[in-house]
Amino acid sequence: MAKNLFRIFRSFQSFVSLPFTKNQVAHPCASVAFRTTFDRTMVQALASFFSPKSRDFSLPNSSWGEEMIRLYEFYNNQCEGENHGGEWRRLPSYNRSLKYASGGVYLSKIIQSKARLFTRNIREPGAAFEYVVFVSKDEQRCVCVFQSGHLLEGPPGHVHGGAIATMIDTVTGSHASILSAPVMTANLNINYRSPIPLGNTVLVESCLDKREGRKLFISCKVTSTDGSKLHTEATALFLSINVSHLLRG
Ligand SMILES: CCCCCCCCCC(=O)SCCNC(=O)CCNC(=O)[C@H](O)C(C)(C)COP(=O)(O)OP(=O)(O)OC[C@H]1O[C@@H](n2cnc3c(N)ncnc32)[C@H](O)[C@@H]1OP(=O)(O)O
After folding, report:
1. Could you give the number of structural domains in the chain?
2. Please, are residues 207 and 218 in contact by the beta-carbon 8 Å criterion?
């Protein structure tokens, strides 16, 4: 049991402390001097597709529209390793959060073989959740560039409220995990202010409001990319947990 718990804990650790790729490419092409940011972006994307390692879904793919690419490059250019101050780190994103868990009966039945992070498992690129999350150097803020796909429709021509909630939980949850993994959402409070047109790219920004013992209070807002339109506001409470919490069933 102790060994299993250790493995599960390691998987959570690796989930939030992955070697942030910044602008490095773990690929032979990394030594190439890229002429433009676009060249580097495309080589990174290709490397991730053909690598035998897990695919990093937060790299550009052919479904990303102009605005998604523009904002990805805007924040990526401000990541450590660039000449722009290194204010942000990009968070890699995989389709399995507990790949290495081989824990107790509960986890081995449900998680081990088939479980996948649902935001990253719709096969058609661009059909649902396309997103990339950046975290600020002081870890007080996260910004996510999110492009909504046609499978996320709720009201005609607009994004489903549950899909918006999913993205808010994902961004605030990733943020809380960086600060204090492992965590679980205890409370999510959402105000929908204006609908998000389906297909639009929006910003989902989170901010750490306060920490009280095991509690992390995080606020979040979803806006148009120029910040002029507020779509959604939320507050979330995360509790850091002991991994044994997940074995209770
Ligand atoms: C790979 C990429 C991943 C991307 C990120 C995705 C993130 C997704 C995160 C999730 O969606 S997690 C899934 C949804 N959440 C759950 O299923 C959690 C279900 N609830 C629980 O398991 C437990 O209720 C919980 C862990 C949240 C708390 O149980 P605990 O036993 O650890 O805490 P406890 O009940 O003793 O409460 C501790 C403190 O928190 C407070 N608290 C607990 N739940 C609360 C609540 N809901 N609202 C307000 N306060 C709450 C509680 O009052 C108390 O305050 P005080 O210490 O001041 O007395």
Report:
1. 1
2. yes
